[in-house]
């Protein structure tokens, strides 16, 4: 009643719906506990009575079942409570549902029944219910005369086992006779029944236990029947279920072998009469691959993969013979990622079988693979990218060399570009697979299609290296607190190492490719390039790229990674790359080796050997390290920077030494040093190891890699040399060169060498034919030889000669440097100067070098000696140098007396140095016997030269001139006497003076200047001292006056020299016993006034004065001094002969114009000494037309106002002379002016009397020795 009332209370539509769920004629009897409390308001009791009722329509039954299924899905717990109230009711409900399933033919109703039964069974979790249902199904199949109505039962069993997998074992064990009924269903001509059977079989074989129990059933009955059924399946349902069963069977190796054996038997009998129904699995799957259904294609590919996984070598041939690869390659162009991925998997497994390649499937399919890669890389499926690249790598790796994979360069280009895109992928796993594929791609047989596209290969390698570099620069993960997560860091480092290793393997293959193509003329460059076109895509350019890429990318990446971890395999590949680059770019191998040595690669390789190659471990790495060190050492020794080229015999000996010794060196640096220190008897093999160790240290040190303690190495090398001496051995040349160099480099840290070691070194050195064989250019090596007298006395000359010959700089900048602000010396020179200061006797060796060495070397020595003497004025070496030079000069004159100019091209350099030494002497110093001997020898040398021997004469004249002026008056007379005694010198000077007027064949202006100055000096000394004259010099007076009246351009110094000569002649009133001034041609009858002035004529005097005025206007300081001095001497000469003429000359109007032109040079220009002397001169020959009293007063007034403390000594002297001249002439009527003058005189007299000599009287102007006092005073 309660149920009826509840239903009656519902609104209309809801009431109709609920009523449809209730069986009205029986519902009133049902207890309310069978009514579901939530919508749909289903009554279980009504359902039990309604569903089997024949009078109820099938539609209503279907509605009830549908509502019950929905309730079961929405409110499973409530429904289960309802059903589980009574076990009998539950069993009855299931029985009723099974009966409905069995009797109803409507497919939708049976599907609902099966779904409800499965849900009830699984939700109830009651074994009794399950057993009951299995029993009912068993009875139904056993009692069924035909399989026609078995579809629903078979479907129910299949889905029941699927829902409860444990039922598979129970069904096989407890209902084993069902297998026979399943076989009946499999042959029944209804694909729906067959599909259900296959589905049930698939669920049974999914259980390993059931599969094992059913093995015999499959072998004896099911296998051929199943293959036949799958082969003949037409409906997709049957095909899918057959493939599902096959997938389950293919999990077990036993079943795979059985199926494939059956298939092989079927294929073997395919061409003859065989049993009907025999089917081959590869052919069946091939047919499914050919279907247009993507699902079947994917499933078929999965099945092929499942077979091959068990044993590719065993099962792949069957699929290859069935041409399965051809269709898999075709499927790579599909737009379905699943199908492409499945095809990749199959092909990867098939690629493990050589038959896959020998049948040329890869040649057929490589284009499809490349196109598929290009397409897949545009998708976001990284798994697809990885599988495609893995397949490509497998094909590239396993492809036989004799079968060309890429038949055209275009295909090769497309493959390279696909790989280039892949290696640039941001996904590390994809990039890693791409790098492996790239490594396999860089094989000669893959790149043999002409033309070889080197530019494309270069772009691929650049992308690969760039990706690796990007990865290496990503910082490791860090925890927030700043502590590195060790596990994550180690994992990241390991991942980077693997990627770097793959990248290096690819780069190594590229290097191997370049080496192999070197022997292929057709691969050197693009043969299709136009004749005149620029050839860029060449092997040479590719090789240079490899070297550059290794230098800029590979080496930094490996070194950066080695700071975190070191893996032997990675370093083995890396060093093999470096080794191959020596062969790839042979013209750069020396330069590359030097850069590697300078970058500590010797140290790196030795540490690798010590760490990993002790004993027999990592023999491959040891071999690679030794080979790399060998070739790098040979390259370094073949093209040394700081030593001579070795001979072929020396290289052969070193090569043999390194080949035998390097593989045996597996010790760290301290152990190697201890090995060198061992003074006990050393056997041959151990001695070779010592040689190799020393060579490695030498090459490392010479390129700046000092990874061994210098102090310890210094001691070790000494011990090594003493050990050789003790055993009476003589070291190989290159080993001794290394030992000497290391001792020199380390001596600052090791102290002085013991006498025993120095003696051993000398003994070894004497065993070599020449020092250049063991010489290595370094200032410290030079110091080593010069520091120890035992070595310097025997080898000093040769080592200095070698040192200068190896110096690249000419040091001209030191020669041109001003005395103030001298530049810093190079380190090599600083070391040499330090040794020279400590041992000045070395200067004698340098003098010998200047004389005996080639001109370029001698020039260097001269500049260095000059620089040393200028910078070390406190070092007194003049006597030492002059004495040695005297010996050289005496030997030269004895050996080459007739023609000293041909004796040595370096003699001018020696004379130049002698002049410099003379210039360093203090003025007013007596000439000793050594100086006099030198003076005699140099004058004798000059007398044997011709005027054209400028290189010898110029420094010689400089020396003679300075010797005359840079000494005391007494020594000057002695020096002049020596010069005057040399008749050949006087003859030479006469020729030189005469050549002044000759245009052609005239010596240089500098030499002429020196000749005039030297002649003037000798004439003055002869006249003043009344010295004996052995040879008179004749000079044409007309030419002298003409040269001064009409001077040439740019000859100021020559004019000054001639003026000094004329001034001397005027001072001597042309009465010199040495110099005779003669007319150049016959003179006319002199006028009366000319007789007084003889040998001058009045016209010559006026012409000379005009010439002097013109020279003064040039305002050259030195020339001005000479002009004023000459004008003073001329007026004195004229005044002595004819005062009127002197007054006439001094009163010329042009003199006033000249004076004011000179005064126009700036403020206080009258305080210049030459102008003061000129005004004094005019005052002496009082001429108011030149300088008036008023103007004199202005000069005095300006002088009184000037700061006299700032004036030079020569200016003060000239000013004092002017004041005295004015005072003596009584020109000052003004009393105040007289007082001013008196005060000035009192202030100037002490300064003038105590005025110091000029700071630098001796100068070298344009290569000409000049004494300012000689020109000025």
TrEMBL record:
GO terms for biological process: meiosis I. InterPro entries: ARM-like, ARM-type_fold, Immune_Signaling-Apoptosis_Reg. Coiled coil: none annotated. This is Meiosis inhibitor protein 1. The gene is MEI1.
């Amino acid at each position: 009643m309660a149920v009826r009332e509840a239903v009656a209370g519902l609104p209309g539509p809801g009431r109709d719906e609920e009523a449809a769920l209730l069986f009205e004629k029986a519902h009133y009897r049902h207890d309310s506990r069978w009514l579901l409390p939530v919508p749909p308001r289903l009554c279980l009791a009504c359902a039990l009575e309604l569903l089997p009722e024949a009078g109820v329509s099938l539609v209503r039954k279907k509605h009830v079942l549908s509502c019950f299924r929905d309730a079961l899905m929405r409110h499973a717990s409530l429904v289960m409570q309802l059903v589980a109230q009574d076990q009998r009711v539950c069993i009855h409900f299931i029985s009723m549902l099974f009966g409905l399933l069995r009797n109803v033919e409507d497919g939708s109703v049976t599907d609902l029944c099966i779904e409800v039964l499965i849900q009830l069974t699984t939700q109830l979790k009651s074994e009794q219910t399950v057993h009951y249902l299995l029993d009912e199904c068993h009875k139904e199949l056993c009692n069924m005369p035909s399989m026609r109505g078995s579809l629903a039962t078979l479907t129910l069993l299949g889905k029941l086992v699927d829902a409860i997998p444990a039922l598979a074992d129970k069904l096989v064990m407890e209902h084993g006779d069902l297998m026979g009924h399943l076989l009946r269903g499999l042959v029944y001509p209804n694909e729906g029944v067959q599909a259900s059977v296959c589905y049930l079989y698939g669920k049974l074989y999914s259980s390993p236990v059931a599969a094992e129990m059913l093995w015999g059933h499959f072998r004896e009955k099911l296998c051929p029947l199943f293959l036949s059924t799958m082969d003949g399946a037409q409906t997709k349902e049957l095909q899918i279920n057959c493939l599902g069963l096959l997938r389950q069977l293919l999990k077990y190796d036993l079943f795979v072998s059985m199926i494939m054996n059956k298939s092989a038997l079927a294929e073997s009998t395919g061409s003859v009469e065989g049993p009907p129904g025999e089917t081959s699995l590869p052919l069946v799957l091939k047919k499914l691959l050919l279907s247009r259904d993507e699902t079947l294609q994917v499933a078929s590919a999965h099945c092929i993969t499942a077979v091959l996984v068990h044993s590719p070598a065993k099962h792949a041939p069957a699929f290859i013979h069935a041409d399965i690869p051809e269709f898999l390659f075709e499927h790579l162009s599909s737009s379905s990622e699943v199908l492409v991925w499945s095809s990749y998997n199959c092909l990867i497994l098939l690629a493990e079988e050589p038959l896959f390649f020998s049948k040329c499937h890869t040649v057929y399919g490589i284009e499809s693979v490349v196109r598929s890669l290009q397409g897949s890389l545009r998708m976001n499926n990284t798994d697809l990218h990885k599988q495609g690249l893995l397949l490509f790598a497998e094909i590239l790796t396993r492809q036989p060399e004799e079968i060309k994979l890429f038949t055209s360069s275009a295909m090769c280009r497309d493959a390279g570009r696909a790989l280039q895109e892949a290696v640039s992928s941001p996904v590390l796993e994809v990039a890693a697979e791409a790098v492996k594929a790239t490594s396999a791609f860089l094989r000669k047989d893959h790149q043999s299609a002409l033309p070889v596209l080197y530019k494309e290969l270069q772009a691929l390698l650049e992308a690969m290296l760039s990706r690796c570099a990007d990865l290496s620069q990503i910082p490791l993960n860090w925890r927030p607190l700043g502590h590195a997560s060790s596990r994550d860091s180690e994992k990241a480092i390991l991942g980077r190492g693997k990627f770097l290793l793959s990248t290096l393997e690819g780069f190594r293959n590229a290097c191997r490719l370049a080496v192999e193509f070197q022997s292929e003329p057709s691969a050197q460059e693009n043969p299709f390039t136009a004749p005149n076109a620029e050839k860029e895509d060449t092997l040479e350019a590719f090789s240079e790229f490899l070297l550059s890429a290794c230098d800029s990318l590979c080496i930094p990446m490996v070194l950066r990674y080695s700071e975190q971890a070191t893996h032997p395999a990675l370093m083995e590949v890396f060093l093999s790359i470096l080794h191959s680059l020596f062969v790839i770019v042979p013209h750069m191998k020396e330069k590359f080796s030097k850069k590697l040595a300078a970058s500590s690669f010797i140290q790196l390789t030795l540490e690798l050997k010590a760490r990993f190659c002790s004993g027999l471990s990592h023999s491959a790495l040891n071999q690679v390290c030794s080979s790399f060190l060998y070739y790098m050492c040979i390259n370094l020794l073949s093209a040394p920077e700081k030593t001579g080229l070795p001979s072929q015999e020396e290289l052969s000996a070193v090569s043999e030494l390194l080949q035998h010794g390097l593989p045996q060196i597996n010790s760290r640096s301290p152990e190697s040093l201890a090995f060198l220190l061992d003074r006990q008897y050393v056997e041959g093999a151990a001695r070779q190891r010592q040689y190799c160790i020393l060579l490695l240290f030498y090459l490392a040190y010479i390129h700046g890699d000092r990874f061994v303690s210098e102090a310890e190495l210094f001691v070790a090398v000494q011990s090594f040399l003493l050990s050789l001496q003790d055993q009476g051995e003589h070291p190989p040349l290159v080993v001794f060169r290394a030992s000497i160099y290391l001792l020199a480099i380390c001596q600052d840290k090791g102290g002085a060498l013991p006498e025993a070691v120095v003696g051993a070194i000398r003994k070894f050195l004497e065993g070599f034919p020449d020092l250049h064989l063991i010489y290595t250019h370094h200032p410290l090596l030079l110091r080593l030889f010069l520091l120890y007298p035992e070595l310097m006395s025997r080898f000093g000359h040769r080592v200095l000669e070698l040192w200068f010959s190896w110096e690249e700089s000419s040091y001209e900048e030191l020669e041109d440097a001003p005395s103030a602000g001298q530049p810093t010396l190079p380190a090599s020179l600083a070391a040499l100067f330090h040794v020279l200061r400590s041992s000045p006797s070395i200067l004698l060796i340098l003098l010998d070098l200047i004389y005996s060495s080639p001109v370029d070397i001698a020039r260097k020595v001269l500049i260095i000696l000059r620089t040393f003497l200028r910078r070390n004025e406190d070092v007194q070496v003049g006597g030492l140098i002059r004495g040695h030079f005297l010996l050289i000069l005496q030997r030269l004159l004895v050996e080459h007396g007739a023609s000293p100019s041909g004796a040595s091209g370096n003699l001018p350099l020696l004379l130049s140095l002698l002049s410099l030494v003379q210039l360093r002497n203090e003025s007013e110093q007596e000439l000793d016997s050594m100086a006099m001997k030198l003076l005699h020898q140099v004058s004798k040398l000059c007398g044997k030269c011709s005027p054209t021997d400028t290189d010898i004469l110029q420094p010689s004249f400089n020396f003679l001139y300075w010797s005359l002026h840079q000494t005391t008056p007494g020594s000057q007379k002695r020096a002049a006497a020596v010069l005057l005694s040399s008749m050949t010198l006087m003859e030479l000077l006469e020729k030189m003076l005469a050549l002044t007027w000759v245009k052609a064949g005239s010596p240089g202006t500098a030499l002429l200047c020196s000749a005039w100055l030297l002649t003037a000096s000798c004439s003055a000394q002869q006249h003043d001292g009344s010295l004996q004259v052995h040879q008179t010099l004749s000079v044409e007076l007309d030419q002298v006056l003409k040269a001064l009246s009409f001077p040439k351009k740019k000859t100021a110094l020559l004019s000054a020299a001639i003026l000094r000569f004329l001034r001397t002649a005027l001072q001597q009133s042309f009465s010199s016993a040495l110099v005779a001034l003669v007319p150049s041609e016959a003179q006319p009858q002199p006028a009366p006034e000319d007789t007084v002035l003889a040998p001058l004529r009045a016209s010559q005097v006026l012409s000379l004065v005009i010439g002097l005025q013109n020279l003064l206007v040039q305002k050259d300081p030195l020339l001005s001094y000479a002009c004023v001095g000459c004008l003073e001497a001329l007026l004195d000469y004229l005044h002595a002969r004819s005062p009127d003429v002197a007054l006439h000359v001094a009163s010329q109007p042009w003199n006033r114009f000249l004076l004011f032109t000179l005064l126009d040079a700036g403020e206080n220009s009258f305080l210049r000494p030459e102008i003061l002397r000129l005004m004094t001169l005019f005052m002496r020959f009082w001429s108011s037309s030149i300088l008036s009293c008023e103007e004199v007063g202005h000069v005095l007034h300006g002088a009184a106002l000037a700061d006299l403390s700032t004036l030079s000594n020569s200016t003060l002297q000239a000013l004092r002379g002017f004041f005295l001249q004015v005072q003596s002439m009584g020109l000052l009527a003004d009393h105040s002016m007289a007082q001013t003058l008196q005060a000035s005189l009192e202030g100037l007299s002490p300064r003038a009397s105590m005025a110091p000599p000029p700071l630098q009287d001796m100068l070298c102007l344009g290569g000409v020795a000049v004494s300012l006092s000689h020109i000025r005073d």
